[in-house]
Structures
1.
Amino acid sequence: MKDKKIILSGIQPTGTFTLGNYIGAVRNWTKLQEEYDCIYMIANMHAITVRQDPAALRKNTANAYALILACGIDPEKSIAFIQSHNRCHAEMNWVLSCSTQFGELSRMTQFKAKAEKHPDDINAGLFTYPVLMAGDILLYQSDLVPVGADQKQHLELTRDIAQRFNQKYGELFTIPEPYIGETGARVMSLQDPTSKMSKSDDNPNACIFILEDKDTIIRKFRRAITDSDTCVRYAEGKDGINNLMTIYSAVTNKSYDEIEREFDGKGYGDFKTAVGEAVADHLAPVRDNFARLAADKAYLEKCWTEGAQKAESIARRTLSKAYRKVGFN
Ligand code: TRP
């Protein structure tokens, strides 16, 4: 019997991570490593559902891997690997797609949104993407999956596929649950605090990238859109200030009450500078770690090769069972 629960999550290697990816996802991944058996994957197979420049994808994948280690994923404690290195994902995808309905996939809101965004490339992979993701999760008999709101529907579908397979062919898959963290904080755009911080925002001031230098980070926070009030407090309708307070709280561990007291009698200008400095200081070690790791290609390759071997030895077992259950000789 296994004693620790299994956690699995993945992140797509598209460009460098944003402060939103960091606070909302990767930083929490590092905290889970003590309590759970964690498996973290760079989802490069998911990435090609939208057009990628091959050289850029290769580089972004290596950088994303270095970045999760830089954020504190310990490759000795957790399994950290690159999706395409483990062939089981592609094979499981096929088996599970035969237990997934066209109608179910048609209802995925992310598919509909992405199809609208890329009307000239509505490829089959974009459509079946949630099946690939179901395989990622089910191959490792994952108990818990930390996902953001945008991936909730995919996790629901994963549960449905798993249950259906178990019913059709006999018990095989663990039914995964969403992992709801303590502060699964959602970081909003600095220029439009009603929408999520996104690396594809046209306005470069809307988004903080975690490898940006201190001056750039502070400058972007100083330009953050707030409101015409002057008092730093968390309140409905004050989306800009609420977002800055969420970010400040996430990097300093201060409560909203403490923050309100700290900035009592001070203006938004002081607050914005303080948030920028706190974020930059918090990210400084990540930036240093990344610089060191990115320069050590041999070490990175060793880590991801070992990670893929560990991942494959677990996944292969589940895949073999699935093959037997469906009747492959
Ligand atoms: N689809 C996820 C995203 O775009 C990334 C991902 C791929 C993932 N496989 C996963 C997340 C498995 C959780 C579990 O964010």
Note: Residues 8-12, 43, 46, 133, 136-137, 145, 147, 151 surround tryptophan (CB under 6 Å).
2.
Amino acid sequence: MDVRAQLASVFHLDKCLGCHTCSVVCKNVWTDRPGAEYMWWNNVETRPGTGYPRGWEDQDRWRGGWQAGDGGGPALRSGGRLSALAGIFHNPALPTLDDYYEPWTYRYGDLFDARASDVQPTARPVSLVTGAPLEVKKGPNWDDDLAGSKEYAARDPNLDALSPAERGQLFGVERLAFFHLPRTCNHCTNAACVAACPSGAIYKRGEDGLVVASSDRCRGWRQCISSCPYKKVFYNWKEGRSEKCIGCYPRVESGEAPACFAACPGRIRFQGVLLYDAERIREAAGAPERELVAAQRRIVLDPYDPEVAAAAGRCGLPEGVLAAARRSPAYAFVKRWEIALPLHPEWRTLPNVFYVPPLLPLFAEKPGDVARTADGLFTDGERSRIPLAYLARLFSGGDGAVVALALRKLVALRLWRRAETVGDVGPAEVEAAFAAARLCREDAAELHRLTTHAVLEERVVLPPALRAEAMAPGGQATA
Ligand code: SF4
Ligand code: SF4
Ligand code: SF4
């Protein structure tokens, strides 16, 4: 057993306000500089929709991530380092500025310098790339909240998984629904960007699994950009090198939560250590598509298991990391409660940002019918406003049962709280919901506390700073 520590995150989608505070904070801290204006290391997109950059999930076009190999484990869709070298001077699988948007500012000076006149002065938008006046037609969240739009929502590639009836359900005016999907780099365990970089400039930090790009070693080949299926590596056109989310490692190393976590007013973000068995990465990444969620969970190790603790010691993990793994909210959400799921596991990068799928409000078939369905007080997966098949395409490699179980846990939690606070749900109904969700009362209580009352220090449980030890001879920095 080769035990490694990975900082992993959980985003609870029912709690996301779509306020974009996370994106703005990250922009102000990390990408507010020339060449990086169009980059949103953290972005929040409305779903269904095409996201940022537009259509980033279309791997037939971008050839990102991994595909199942011929018995020898997963293979890079882009063809690996040798193909990368061949494609250095011509790589058609790269998004252009048009796929993102042309960043702009306004000529604010015009407001101050305008001559006295009866006409109100205006600040014209100008491109931050060319400086020329620009007619603004798109932006990173231009289509925010455009549920049901034929221009935006209808072009979501995941809608392929839906039957005509389900599509109709999604676009019927009285059933319109959407949710917000915040996205950062996933700091993947089987990172395609790392595998594709011909210069070895992107690497995974041994001590905490964060994936970072070295600006000294980057030669601007951009193979990382096409190989990342999440399109979370960006090219700084001014400096000629790739950049990406760094997991706010300078903050993390000093015990501070990443900026986008600390600033999130919806308190949807949780972070903690997952221990995993590096010897089984290949096996997990090569599992059949519908088993990928379970396979990824299987390589996550139980930090309370004495054998795991002993192996962690042999692998050089300090006691403080083990202690942090035991208090990790990520471990609770991902492994204990099985309620947080990876985004597009079928790309086989083993992403380390997990999502609690959204339990949207029940669809009311007639006025007043918002209280009970045959299955309980709130909706079940089949009556969810967002079809289960859509969520399964996003979070489980197409296996609806995995998402349905997570939704049942959310339903059970709400039923139980309703019984406690309003009192119009009977104990038998609550017990039935707990049984259907495979959730015990103690876990429900902890899940409820963590998602309602927990302060930042409980939502983000960081291991002690380990950079110095990792860099020492024999340390894990190069793992
Ligand atoms: Fe690399 Fe991050 Fe993309 Fe994963 S999400 S492949 S770690 S850039
Ligand atoms: Fe940006 Fe830090 Fe959040 Fe990464 S972790 S998206 S660098 S604020
Ligand atoms: Fe707002 Fe948090 Fe959602 Fe970002 S993740 S949009 S900060 S609620």
Note: Residues 400-421 form the longest helix (22 residues).
